[in-house]
Amino acid sequence: MTLENTYYIGQTVAVVAILATLIALIIQMRNANKLTRKAAIQNQLDGLERGTRALFEIPGLADIYYRAFQGEAALTDGERVIFRSYNISILRIWEALHAQYMEGEINQELWENHCKQLSDPALSLGVREVWRYQRRMVSEQFRVFLDEVFAKVEPVTKAKPGTVHADGAVYDPVSDAVSNFGDNKEETP
Fold first, then answer.
1. What percent of the chain is helix, strand and coil (3-state, nearest 5)?
2. What sign has the CA pseudo-torsion 177, 180, 182, 185?
3. C-alpha to C-alpha distance for 127 and 119, rounded to whole angstroms
4. C-alpha–C-alpha distance, residues 67 and 173, integer Å
5. What is the pLDDT of residues 15-71, one digit of tens each?
6. How many whole angstroms separate alpha carbon 181 and alpha carbon 119?
7. What gap in Å lies between CA 86 and CA 68, rounded to an integer?
8. Using CA atoms, how far apart are residues 71 and 156, in angstroms rounded to an integer?
């Protein structure tokens, strides 16, 4: 074997090593992208949970939210600011989730299950009033989606726990449960 042959063998081994390294880097980048997407989705879902938890962790917010079912007129000016701020923060989370769903990053079943939560605020006259002002703050695609959600249910102005609405929804302010989408209709005894 000549020195030239050894050189060519060394070059071939070096090229194979470089290709193997590039393939490993591509695989790592793809895995990192998947993890980043999953983390972004989980962050949005955690935001929804924080929004729900805020109703019972922040003193007075649940009362404001409940009274807003009668409309914003039932709230003081300060409560109206709190209610609108709470709503826009929740809407931003939903808008981000919707964008991720539209890009195919959230599977259909997970999306549909989370969309059931939207029926509770859709019943609120106060949320509908705020939506008229806040709808300009979101993307057109999300605006169309949320308008469709609101069109599916009638607003309730004086919801009482266990109220069964004409569309089959059961309102329970304690557990924040309203189910009026699909086959998951709840019955009260």
1. 70, 5, 25
2. positive
3. 11
4. 11
5. 999 999 999 889 888 888 777 777 777 777 787 778 778 888 888 888 888 888 788
6. 8
7. 12
8. 10
